[in-house]
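[Meeting: bench + compute handoff]

Bench side (C.D.) handed over the final construct sequence. Compute side (W.E.) agreed to return the predicted structure before the next meeting so the bench team could plan truncations. Sequence as handed over:
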Amino acid sequence: MTFLAPWALWAAGVVSAAVIALHILASKNPRVTPLPTARFIPDVPLRATARAMRLSDVLLMLLRVAVVMLVGVAFARPEMTTGKRPVGRVVMVDRYPAESDRAAADSAQKYFRDGDLAFAYDSAVHRLPGKAPFANVSAASVESGSGGSLSAALAGAMRAASTLRGSADSVEIVIVSTFNTSEFDAATSAIRAVWRGRIRVVRVSRDSLPNDAQVITNVDARANRDVRGSPPDDPLRASIAFVENTGGRRAGTDSVRMERGSLSGIDTSWTQHGGTLVRWPAALDSSGFPAHARADTAGAVVAGSGSSRAVVVAPFVRVVDPPAGRVVARWADGSPAATERTVKEGCVRDVAIPLPRAGDLVLRESARRLVAALSSPCGARAITAPATDSALDQLRDTGPLVATRALQARTDSSSTFTTWMLVAAFVLLLVEPLLRRQRAAA
């Protein structure tokens, strides 16, 4: 067992010594016995103080010391430790296109040992259980088909690394991926700088991937958009006004139709000639979308990919979920924020992202990129380029591994011990008055 805040033990020891000293030096009032002739003495209280020459009430003293020490141990945050190994690993594998490539799973498995942590990542991080965890990557393939996010991978790996405090002296992060440019975003370098150690980068050859594995969804902002069923002050209209609106029309109509009103009367025949129908209700609570399991707040939403990836950080209140379909946008916890399904020659896209009417969120660059991604025509495709060697060198970095003692503990063992120590101290505090009463009656 180790203590995350050992200073609390020293403080508890000092307070316990003071309690013992005060107990030894404490004066007590002996029993008062008036003499028969006391009736001739004025009626005033008779008091006498005598210095105790021997230790008394030992049980009471020990109880008080126990209370102080239990509180001290609780604040010292005890943590159970087992036999530690030199290095523990957090192995991350890109779910797309690595889930279709046996070589990627084999490479990740090569670095995995008992006690290590295995994860797959796309726009979120997913734990892989078992002694051969990467055999399950293909069974948990992504629905969106979008590339992975190194920002999500790094953040998830750093959170998970702290759970190895009790089993390893240092931690190594291993990332297995094709490392396309689409995996890097504006936050990647800042998140990487937080990890004060090197990272093992295992690059999977793009030549071993399926022919269509390098094709990912991309945002085409050059589309005509028609917003329907909304008032003039609709925040989506304000954001659409800043999105590039060039390109030809299809058969004299808009290529993307966005419905903001009631969904009950929407005509999906718009998609029979390849049109894109975006169902983005302005009032999500009465949209008819499936209710969210528990109304909560998400801190960010991610959509798009590659250079057109949009990440909007804001307190989004989630009350509904989009219908089942191919995921095209995710919340920060990985759950779907928008889905898409093919209907005839086109597609229907359902968006469950609330847009606030107040504030300037919809006018920000990140929000405009989000709207462009979710209002792009179906099937826009692009080939992603491999990341440069210099980008991988920055991701890899040099230097020693990160020591586990430098990581913030995220395990529950410390909080569990702390709770039980405080409960025990509270119980002893309830017993202490009973012992004092027995002492006073003696």
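W.E. noted at the follow-up: The two ends are 42 Å apart (CA to CA). C.D. will use this when planning the next construct.
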